[in-house]
């Protein structure tokens, strides 16, 4: 995958002022280096130090961190000393397929485009949260990071070493184990939390290197960061949208757009791993009240209402029905049908964000169900019959009661299981 360097035009003073403004919009920088001797800090000035307390002077090379259990197979070359000038991240583009060399070159030549960075954007389901990951080249992506983060060598060394960089608010909601490792999917090893730092956009919750992106099944080079320098992003958005395929997401990241989700911006939702092909990809628009409007064509092709045992008719993703029926039939056969109350079923397909966030719920894909709601609220042990739980697990479902912050009403499709 091509990694373009800076394109036309030198870095100019006013752009640096805009970079500082962008940092103030993002808010205070939070850094957490998780090796021995380093601690988290809420001090915004720590963004210019090594890991909030370790390493050398800002912008100087430092050794890649050594973390017990870190798999070297997921490391890339350390980025070395930062020699570039920071760039503003003004527009993020996400396509369903790799953005080819010809299109990339045409974008670089567009009036108002000062620099372009190619990367991969993907989504991974973690405990009913759809985590938006950017798989990047740490050496070049760092130019677009907010505030003083481009000069913070330890951040980029850690990402290169195969660790995760994640926003602090998002990190608090993720089920890291006692050693700060996180399971992204069952198909790859756990990833280690390297740093907590602000991200460039709501479209990115966390950053990994390209090796991790490849292991997670990311579409190579399906996304771009674009800096417009002194030009307003509006100058670029319209011709960019016309140039790219219809279902491409083109989102402004300037100060006006940072305060909330732009209802006119098309977003892309895609899961990775063994469910990706069955569930597919869809685009959507935020429509207020925590809800989204998915592409109607995707809904017609993938969502339907069908009868199942115990519950009657339910509306879900077509991919879930064979194993959902198998699980419910086995529950009936084993005399446990009374353990699921149809009157306390809270639904399957509901296109929305997780409450109070801009993170998609798995219900948006129609692959999660909530049972026996009153007795199984979040943060409780719940009252779900454990044999019922084991049957659902047998048929490829994960249970929210196993999560660090429990959600015992919740079952979600975790793998494909075909009844014989």
TrEMBL record:
Residues 49-58 have a biased composition (Gly residues). One of its GO terms (molecular function) is peptidase activity. Transmembrane segments: none annotated. Residues 41-73 are annotated as: Disordered. InterPro entries: Peptidase_M15C, Zn_M74/Hedgehog-like. Residues 356-413 form the Peptidase M15C domain. This is Unannotated protein. It comes from freshwater metagenome.
